Structures are given as C-alpha cells and as structure tokens.
Amino acid sequence: MIESIAAQNGAGQRVLLGLCSGGNVSLGAATLGTFSGGLIALSTLPFQPSRGKEFEQKRAMKNLKNYAKKALSPSTWMRLFKGEINTDRIKKNLTASEGKAPGERNLKDSKRDIEKELLQWKGPALFIWGDGDEEAALARQHFEKLHQAGMGARAETRFHTIAGANHNFYGRGWREELSWMIVEFLNRSNANL
Questions:
Q1: What Rg do the C-alpha atoms of the chain give, in angstroms?
Q2: Where are the beta strands (DSSP E) in the chain?
Q3: Which residues pair with 158 in a beta bridge?
Q4: Domain segments of the chain: what residues?
Q5: Model pTM?
Q6: Are the beta carbons of 78 and 54 closer than 8 angstroms?
C-alpha cells in the first residue's frame, strides 16, 4: 500500500516517522507489503503485549508524578470543580495495567504479531528517546533486543538518547538536537534507499 501511494505521487525516498504510538503505527506499516524505506521512531514504546511488570510499574510512577504536579496548580482544581476532569481515567492510570480485562481483547493490541514481523524487516531505522522520559530506558532496551534478533539487520539501525529531553522533546535545544539526528539519518539513508 505504501509503495503504491508513493508510486502514484512520484515519491522517491520513503521514510515513515512517528512519535510515541505514531512510532508503533510506523513500525506496523513498515511490515506490510514490500516496504523498503526507512523508519524514524521517536519516544516509541514496546507494543502492548511486550510490556512487562517493570514497564507497567514505571508507567504508573510516571503518571503519579505528573498528576502530583498538576495537583499543585489552582487551574487543575477549578477544572475538577467544573467536572472537566475524568477522575475515573486518572484512577485507572494510577492503579490499573493497560492490559486486557479478563476474557476480553485489549483494543490496544494488534491482531498481528508486529514484533515477530519486524524481525523480517531489514530497512534502516532510527530510534530516539529523551532520557527525561521514565519509560525511555526500558523501551530502548526492548527495541535493541529486537534489532539483535534481526530487525533492520541488513541496514543501518541507530539508537539514540537525548540527554535531559522529555517524552515530547519540548525545549528548543532538544528539538534542535532531534532535528540534527533526523537530518543526518536521512542523508546517510538516502544513499541506501
């Protein structure tokens, strides 16, 4: 499908890029058909079925820290009194796993085993996280293991962490470093695509 769209539009080099769950979408799309382009995955987390207990605990702690910061803001309390805050969602974010309920399919799970399919995908990839993101270290370890098992084996696959950057790379310096890494990857990959 991606190759067909590219051919219809006269696209040359093709690179899929996604941030967080958009990175998961890009990884999934790369395994469809005969896509031979590159991937850029920013702050991308392991697919739902691959998240272990340690990952879930780190995610709950991250949520707790974020909600604690928000609780110090008067505007948060105003929104709470107006009924604009979904307290049930907050409770689930702090206490429940994102896994499926007993007897149900988790809607965040794909029917495909994308990570198994990724072991066959051989294109170039760039993964970047910010080390200010509590989930970054575990996510990076996970995708490095996939690479060691075969993902992107015939092309350049790079893993980077930007010092101090948060999940969304807010901050001019972090964005500049992120942009530099992406441009460098595209320039290097252009010769191989």
A1: 19
A2: 15-19, 38-42, 125-130, 157-162
A3: 126
A4: 2-50+111-190, 53-95
A5: 0.70
A6: no
State which amino acid sits at residue 42: L
The fold of 2-50+111-190 is Rossmann fold (3.40.50)
Tell me whether residue 3 is exposed, middle or buried, using C-beta atoms within 10 angstroms of its C-beta: 0 to 12, 13 to 18, 19 or more: middle
The pLDDT tens digits along the chain (193 residues) read 445 544 454 445 678 999 998 998 898 888 887 777 889 999 998 876 566 677 677 777 777 787 788 888 888 888 888 888 788 777 776 665 555 555 554 445 556 778 888 888 888 899 999 998 888 888 999 999 988 888 876 678 899 999 999 999 999 999 999 999 999 998 887 655 5
End-to-end CA distance of the chain: 18
CA distance 95 to 11: 46
Burial class (CB in 10 A: 0-12, 13-18, 19+), 176: exposed
Contact of 154 with 122, CB cutoff 8 Å:
yes
Q: How far is it, in rounded angstroms, from Cα 156 to Cα 180?
A: 17
Overall residue count recorded for the chain in this entry: 193
